[in-house]
């Protein structure tokens, strides 16, 4: 039985908590968090504390807090003997400054109150030694079938890639919704296209799947589109993404 | 039984052909196309021709050709009595210059040799009169459960919205794949995130679903990301999309 202590009470901590709570190989010994109000929902199931002096001993401490407080939270665990793993995409393993420092990074977008099925979520692991990596693997297998060993420098790039694939993509969906709204068209009309755009990647890589006026270098259509865009930032975005598509085309030739 | 003639032999024409061929309420009378080689695969099932003088009479002519030849192809049908409908997102109904001009625009991305299930694809209809709209509706119901009446000016905006939601999004996937490649990480590691980004829209609108460093105005992470991007166009893209996310944030406040 792996003894686990969760540090944090936010979105990622809650999702991990809910999944590990039902695991037969993991026992959540305690949840630590600064916010007493947020600790309440955990206290129904396991011991909780907001005092760092009360943090118990465990095999693994999972730090699921905002990037900017990881270092200060890790300092509270400086004298612990267990593995200390953060869950961030962009913070180096070195930030933990611990001989059993590790990373347990689930690569997914977490939405409050929306249940997550971890089984297909990639878990990116990094450890300070082989023994710890074996323990982290055991822990990760309780969540997911998709486990990767990813170094800090790889993870940094991966996090950047995820910003393009998720955050930026979602913003483009926002712009397309605004365009629908401006003509009183329901955004639902675009959703099948959006799903297919993602699903296509099962069969084709993105460069094979690329279509549209920029791909065809269809100057007339691009000009018409630009004239329809009122927001100056959206206009610049249209131009720059089109330029980038044309640039990729030329690099392929 | 609706008598249908298909004009064109490309991607959209092939997908429509395969679906209508199995319909009990639609009879494909003929396929017309300039390219004799491409006509061959249709000729196994229905009469084909590459001579405009041989085009038969029908209830509906569906023009599924590139935008830039729609006008010239429509001229070949000037003396026909049936409904003349093009399938383009960006061309006005007026371009057809026919008293029974119409639009039959399936809003989806079509990939060669990849079978399409039309049932959930939105079909956007426009007609020159109510009677023709009823006929087009009957035709569309043979394909899809999702039918919309969309005017030429609405369709123009919708097509632009689709460029953001599909073409531009796919290009961001390309950039994220390049970033994975640069660190020898499999692109598969990002796919669950990409699916979830699309799936989230079932429950949340994109502005609610927005996360990431730009949303949080996390200047330090954005700076680190910019330093990692080598391609100058990708750097500019990162800055501009982040700027656009921050701008949307401020407009919401």
Please tell me the overall pLDDT of chain A: 95
Count of distinct structural domains of chain A: 2
Structural class call of chain A reads alpha/beta
Between the first and last Cα atoms of chain A, what is the distance in angstroms? Answer: 56 Å
Radius of gyration of chain A, in angstroms, nearest whole number? 22 Å
Total count of helical runs of at least 4 residues of chain A: 10
Strand content of chain A: 5-15%
Query: Biggest sheet of chain A, open or closed, and with what strands and sense?
Result: 8 strands, mixed
Pfam family, one (chains A, B): F420_oxidored
Domain DUF2520 (chains A, B): 121-245
InterPro entries (chains A, B): 6-PGluconate_DH-like_C_sf (IPR008927), DUF2520 (IPR018931), NAD(P)-bd_dom_sf (IPR036291), P5C_Rdtase_cat_N (IPR028939), TM1727-like_C_sf (IPR037108)
Protein name (chains A, B): DUF2520 domain-containing protein
Compact description:
Chain A is of the alpha/beta class and 253 residues long.
Q: Can you describe what's shown?
A:
- The structure is a homodimer of 253-residue chains.
- Chain A has 253 residues and is of the alpha/beta class.
- Chain A folds into two domains: 2-150, Rossmann fold, CATH 3.40.50.720; 155-252, N-(1-d-carboxylethyl)-l-norvaline Dehydrogenase, domain 2 (Orthogonal Bundle), CATH 1.10.1040.20.
- Chain A contains ten helices and eight strands.
- An eight-stranded mixed sheet of chain A has the order 3-2-1-4-5-6-7-8.
- The first copy, chain A, is elongated, with a radius of gyration of 22 Å.
């Amino acid at each position: 039985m792996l003894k686990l202590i969760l540090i944090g009470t936010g979105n990622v901590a809650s999702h991990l908590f809910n999944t590990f709570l039902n695991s037969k190989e993991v026992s959540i010994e305690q949840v630590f968090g600064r916010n007493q109000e947020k600790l309440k929902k955990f206290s129904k199931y396991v011991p909780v504390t907001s005092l760092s002096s009360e943090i118990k001993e465990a095999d693994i401490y999972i730090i699921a807090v905002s990037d900017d407080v990881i270092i200060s939270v890790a300092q509270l665990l400086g004298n612990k003997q267990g593995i200390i793993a953060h869950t961030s995409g962009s913070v180096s393993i070195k930030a933990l400054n611990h001989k059993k420092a590790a990373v347990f990074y689930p690569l997914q977008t977490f939405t409050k109150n929306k249940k997550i099925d971890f089984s297909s979520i990639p878990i990116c692991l990094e450890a300070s030694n082989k023994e710890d990596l074996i323990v982290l693997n055991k822990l990760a297998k309780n969540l997911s079938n998709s486990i990767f060993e990813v170094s800090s420098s790889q993870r940094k790039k991966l996090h950047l890639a995820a910003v393009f694939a998720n955050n930026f993509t979602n913003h483009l969906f926002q712009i397309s919704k605004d365009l629908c709204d401006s003509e009183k068209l329901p955004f639902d009309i675009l959703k099948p296209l959006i799903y297919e755009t993602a699903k296509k990647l099962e069969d084709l890589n993105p460069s094979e799947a690329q279509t549209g006026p920029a791909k065809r270098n269809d100057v007339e259509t691009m000009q018409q589109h630009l004239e329809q865009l009122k927001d100056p930032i959206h206009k610049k975005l249209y131009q720059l993404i089109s330029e980038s598509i044309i640039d990729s085309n030329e690099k392929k030739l």
